[in-house]
Every structure is written in C-alpha cells, then in structure tokens.
Amino acid sequence: MIPPAVRARRTRWARTARWSGWLYVLPALLFYAVFVLRPLALTFQYSLYHWNGIGVARWAGLQNYVTVFTDSDLLRIIGNAFVLIVFFSFIPVGLGLLVATVVRRIAGGPFGTVVRTVLFLPQVIPLVAAGIAWSWLLSSTGLVNQVLRGVGLGGLARAWLGEFDTALPAVGVIGAWVLLGLCTILLVTGMSKIDPALYEAARIDGAGPVREFLAVTLPGLRQEIGVCLTVTVIAALASFDIVYISTGGGPGLQTTVPGLEIYRLAFAQRQVGLASALGVVLMALVLLCVLPIQRLTREDRG
Amino acid sequence: MSGYTARRFSRRGMMLVVPLTAAAVVATACSAPGADQPSSGATSGSVSTQLGSEQITLEMYAETGFPLAKALTEEFTKQYPNVRFNVREDQFTVIVENAPRVLASDSAPDIIRLPTMVDLVKDGLLKNLDPYFTAYGWEKFPASQLVQLRVAEGGRPRGSGSLYGMGLGYSVTGVFYNKQLAQKVGMTQPPATVAEFEELLAKAKAAQVQPIMQFNKNTAGINFPHQALQNQFGDPAQIADWIFQKPGATFDTPAALKATQTIQRWAQAGYFPKDANAIDYTAMNGQFQQGGGLFMFNGDWESANLDKAMAGNVGFFLFPGEAPGAKHVAMSAPNTFGVGAKAKHPDAAAFFLNWVHTNDKAREICVKVGGSSPGGPPDLTLPPVTEGTVLAETLRAAAQLGAENGAVDFTANATGAIFASAITPEMQKLVAGQQNPEGYVKAVQAEYEKELSR
C-alpha cells in the first residue's frame, strides 16, 4: 500500500513526464510539420487551382480531379503503374520466397553471406546508375541481345526499351532486379525467427518440403511478406528514377508512370494544379492498395 | 464500439490531430497561390550605354556543355576588368524548368539562357530590351535575325512586338554526311532536290549503309527531318505563324501531312535506325562519328565536335527543295539570352550583349567556340575559319540562308510543352507504326490548342 502523499507526487511526476516527453519530440514534430504536413496541405490547396507556378492562380474547384479521372492519357499512365506492381511486387516477393527457402539452409555459412551480399547489392547501387547500366544491357547491341544472337535466337533480339510491346515489361524487369534483393533479405531474416522445433515437428509428421513451406514457412512469414508487399507496391506506384533514366516515359506513353507525369506536368507544362491533383490521387491510390495489405498481414492482436 | 472509438480519439490522439488540422487550415485558408509580378512593360527611356568603371559582378545562368557563354565572359572581363561574372550552369531542360522560379526570385540573374520566352514575358519576368535596341542602334541588324526574339504585349503572338532577348550566336540546321560512306554509295555532291535525297537513301539502304542516323528517345529527333520536309512542302510563313501562335494558325496543313507521310514511308523503308526510339541525342552523335550512318539531321553547334572527331570526313548541306534551285529553308534559332526583369545591372548586361555582336574578338569566339554565326550588323566581316572544315561549311550555309531569308524557328518551340507532350510521343508512335500521318498531325494540333486555351 502506497501512502497517499507518495501517490500524489507520482501522479504529478507522471504528468510532468508526459509533457516533457512532448518537449523531446517537439523538434522532430516541427520538422515533420514544416517538411511533410505543410507541403501536403499546400499540394491539396494547389490541386484546387489552375496555376502555372508564378502568376496569379485561378480557382478551379474539382476540375483538375475531373481531368485526372477522364483524360484517357492520364488513365493510361495510372494503368501503367498497376502493371508495374506485377513486376515490382509479385515477382520479387514470389522469387524472394523461393530464394529465401533455399538460402535458409546455408544462411549460417560464409556462402550464405556471399549470396545475401550479392542479392542485396542492387539496393546499394543508386537507381540512376542501375537504370543507365540496364539501358546499356537492353539496347539493340547490348549484352542481352548479344547473348540471344550467340545462342541462335537472333530473331528475338530487339531494342527492348524502345519497342512498344516490350518497353514496359523491360522496365519492370529492372525494378524486379532492384527489389528482389530487399525482399529476399527481409524474408531470410524472418525465417531465422521461426522456431526450428516447428520444422522438426512438421518433418516428424511426414511433411515434404512443399508441405513444410506451406504449413510452417508461409504463415511464419506473414508479417515480413506484408512489409515486402507494402514497400514494393509503393515503389511500383511511385516509381520515377528507373523509368526516367531508362526510357524517359517512351516510346509514346508506353512507360510513362504517374511520378514522371507529375514532374512533367508541374515543371515542363507548368500546370501545377493538375500535377498536384494527380499527386493527391496517387497518394490515395497508394493508401488504397497498402492499407488492405497491412490489415491482411497484421498479426492478430489476441 | 463507441467505447473503442472514444479510446481511439483519446487526448493523446487529439493532441496530434489538432495541430495537424490547424496547419492544414492555415495553409489552405490563405489566398490563392502566386502573386502579381512587377510588370516589365516598356521601361522608361533612361537606359545607359555606358559601362562605367564601378566594380560589379554580373550573375549569369547558362547551359552546361556549351562552353561559349563562359568563354565570352572571360574575354569580356579581360577587356573590362571591373566587370566580373558569376556563371551558374545547368542542363537545358533544367533551365527550362527553373527559369520562371529563378527569374522570380530575389537573386534573379542579369543574363539568362532562355527557353521559350512567351510564358516568361506573360509573367513579366523578362526585361523589355526596346530602349537598348534604340540606344545601341540594333535596327542596323538584319530584322530577320531578331524576329524570333520579339514578343507582343501579354506574350502572344511571338515574332512581333518588343525585343526580349539576343543571340549568343545564331545557329543553323541541316544535314551532316559521312564522306567515306557517301563515296561508298556513289554520292558525289550534295543532293539538289528532295527526290535526289530520297534516291541516296535508297542507294545507301541497298549498300547496307544506315541511311539516316537519328535519335528519337527522350525527345523526338526525327522532328528535324520532319520539319525539313514540312518547310519545303508548303509556305514556311505558315509554319512561322503557327510557331509564333498567330490567331488561326494550324498544324493541320497539307504540307505537314505530306511531311508526316514521307517520314512514315522512310521509317517503313528502314531509313531510320530500327531502334531510333531507344537512341538518345548523345548516342546518335557517338554512332554517327563512328560511321554508323550516312546522314544526320543536326545543327551547327556540333560542327566543332564533328571536326574534331571525324576530321576531313564530314560534310554539311542545307536540306534541298522539291525543285532544283528552290529556296532553302532551314530551322535556325538564336542561342537566346535575355535580361531578367529583376536584374541588378541591366545596363551592363545589355552592354555585354551588344559587345558580343560587335566586338571582333567576341565574334571570333562565337564562331570558334560556338560554331555559329555571330550575327550583328551585316557590314561586319565574318571571322576567318580553316577551309575544308565542316565549320566553314556550316558558316557558309548560315550566310546563304540569311541571304535567301530562309530561316524559320523550330516547331518544337511553338509552345512550352508541345515537344514533350505531343511531338515526342506521337513521333515515337509514328515511326513504330502505332500512329498514322493523319492522326499525328491532328494530335499535335489538338495539344497546341489545349495549351493555348489555358
């Protein structure tokens, strides 16, 4: 039993502590407000105007949003981003699971370290450099076509990034290459947390590798897969650098993505209002895609 | 349920929500973004043509990769030691994107490399140079030299009205050719007609020589040959009207359509590289220098580079007309520089621009470093260059074009975004067989109208 006086002092202390806690986060909060919240609010404000960035703005109401949802070019561009999800998210996560399952067995040894380093390397390379390197590899005289010609498949050789049918998948492949490493590392780390006893139990119950994967590994990795999907879906929807460097959005509008279009609208076409509206819509789309993933993969809280 | 909600909107939650909402409200409640810029309309006549002896520093914003501007500033400081320059350089596309904001800022440059100037004039960001035009007697220059730099009140149309820029050199475009490959396909002299040019393309193709090396990635390089054809298939004045945004001008003309059909035919015949949509400007130059094509449509700004990389093996001609002896028409544009409306030393900036056109040493630098005609009054002689170089050929071509009065601006400069938003993607589609000529012409005109209606 605590004497009343002590309890009172403790409550007071707790109250002070609560306030001083805010004091500690105040600088960070200030930066957050100035560099994140204020731009966010301004973007929303700009999206309601016709504005060239310099002169006087004209009130537009929701007209910019109507344009975003009715302009066939802009809808196509948004569609391109969703195609990229297949390459940026599904392929890296799928392949990552496969690779991680294999790597898990050798994770401890020096070979495991090598494999992890090699796979993670694309994350360390700046995306611009990766984009340039890949546009060399995929050019009409690049390594990919040289290999194809070398093995007698010269008929398949083409300017991968320059042709209408192959440009978007080719950009997707670059993205998959970049994100595969990140997914694999996250999944390997997740696997090391799974209780080995579970695997043992599964094996005693007579489960093969596939059954073991489905019954033990996959459920155990639920959270990690959630993180992977979240990060990669955002990377797909908000992609910019790889596309800008490797194709510049061409040919035609084949590889133009919302990030690139926002930049073009705002700085080349000087339609700050429309660019902001597309930005807000893009943010809403990202949330719309990511929130269900978060909900589905969250660990149940009892 | 209600209890759960109540807990979620606890005091701690509210403490976050309140400032956020407040911030959002404050940000959105304020007036419309943007503000009136001080008008740069006809300034009072009190301009000085004296440089003075005061120690000053001119702020300059120039283009990376083109050493001309810097070379000129160095020579100027040598002649007038009291004037120093602070040169900031960026890629041209970056300047295009930055110019309005940089010019609107308090540290606006005195001299700036200009992209399309219509919007800048509309926003009152550029100095009206009319008083200097009178004070320095620039009316002695050929009128056609400065016509592209005139903008009417309010920004439209271009090509008439007040002067807002001067050229650091005046470029001309045409066709470069590889002399060794020309010999191989039996080309003894530059073609005299479009038909002869097409014959050469066919001969080159038959001899397994890439007929035209042209880029079409990022920006549509095939717009060069397209406009070269368009210039010849109709009245170039129509094209100029369209570029200058004169009322009623349209891109949907028989000349443009015929040019587009020709480009389509050339693309189908394999006269352009098969992967043109994956070749950018730098790659094109590299490939042409290595013998990757017989012809390349480009401008005299590359003359010095080509003389260095393929000395003696490169020639240049103006694109021919349909009939022999037809008037030459070529895209030609000043390397435009203007003076910021907020410039701190506008008099000195104008003095510098005048000096570039009239000083012997400066004119020599324009030719040697910039590769382009220095412009200025016609009675001043052209600086001498080594005979046999492609630089000498492009200079002669520029003089010839001036004499024939055949200069026309680039269609890509018609509006701020026409190149990026219509010409480039539609041209990429056209050469890949994803767009037909009628559709191309209509799409470009539609984007033009969309932009002018804003």
TrEMBL record, chain A:
It is a multi-pass membrane protein. Its main location: membrane. Keywords: Cell membrane, Membrane, Transmembrane, Transmembrane helix, Transport. The chain crosses the membrane at residues 21-41, 77-102, 114-137, 167-188, 225-245, 272-293. Residues 78-293 form the ABC transmembrane type-1 domain. The keyword Cytoplasm does not apply. It is found in: Cell membrane. It holds the Pfam family BPD_transp_1. It comes from the Bacteria. Belongs to the binding-protein-dependent transport system permease family. This is Sugar ABC transporter permease.
